[in-house]
Amino acid sequence: MDTTLILIAVVVLMAISFDFINGFHDTANAIATSVSTKALTPRMAILLASSMNLLGALAFTGVAKTIGGKIADPFELENGLVIVLAALIAAIAWNLITWYLGIPSSSSHALIGALTGSVLVAAGTSGVNFKGFLTILQALIISPFAAFAIGYIIMNILRFLFKNANPRSVNRGFRYMQIVTAAFQAFSHGTNDAQKSMGIITFALIAGGLHQTMEIPVWVKIVCALAMAAGTSAGGWKIIKTVGSKIIKLQPISGFSSDLTSASVIISATLLGQPVSTTHVISSAIMGVGSAKSVASVKWLTAQRMITAWVITLPVTAIIAALCYSIISIF
């Protein structure tokens, strides 16, 4: 029992660390456009993102239940705590590597890939709920395409509506409106991303025999929400630079369009209980908005680098988690 309690404590601390890192890793995505267009100062953007992330994290639990129960059944797995620990180590390592390199990769892909890899090496293919995994994978794949298409449509509609308006007045108006969409963006980020750590902790509590249902304990919701908000306040300036300026040159109207698009896609996924990559969705929305202006205006080399990171995240984190599980199991 002592060993189990120690493992649970370590897993909870690691999950909180993942949430904190996720906060500063993905905060950039939520506020990059508003900072880039000077709708908000960096300090104000981070304060807004922190508070709205906190509210969003406390608002929903559907995604947490999906992460905690649809990839594998925590009630059936042996060594469930070691499985979760290995997954968290792999996901955190990948997040830190991509953050250091300034690549807006996906924390969601990292965690889902790592958990799947850890379960596979621990319990084989029978341990993975492939139906649930494929449902999650489907949401991860569809959401960026939806964001690209919606961003393209919204930007074209706005360009048509304001084609004869004074550009300076349009920019000033949309700069104010970006404050609202930045808040919506940060809220939606909290509703989806903070849920992932809640699901992992609940998974660990069930595996350790300290919890009997997939209902998320109140203390888990509060701790994960605070960790996400704290991480958000730490910021992620390298990724802000990549998302805010290295995909397209943003103006307030395009920043508004991309924020509205990505926040709408993320909150829709949350309402369906599906984890999506906020990084993928936001970056794809910016690309869609940029393409509406001109395909040539999108810096496709940067986009290609980001897409490469997205594609390799699932298999790489699965392999790292499998290695971590094998090493931890020795002890």
TrEMBL record:
Keywords of the record, alphabetical order, are: Membrane, Transmembrane, Transmembrane helix, Transport
Main subcellular location? membrane
- GO CC annotation, single: membrane
- TM stretches of this protein: 6-24, 45-68, 80-103, 110-130, 136-162, 307-328
GO terms (molecular function) for this protein are:
phosphate transmembrane transporter activity
One GO BP annotation here? phosphate ion transmembrane transport
User: Which membrane topology term applies here?
Assistant: Multi-pass membrane protein
Pfam families per record: PHO4
- Localization: Membrane
Q: What is the protein's name according to its record?
A: Inorganic phosphate transporter, PiT family
Q: What is the species of this protein?
A: Desulfotruncus arcticus DSM 17038
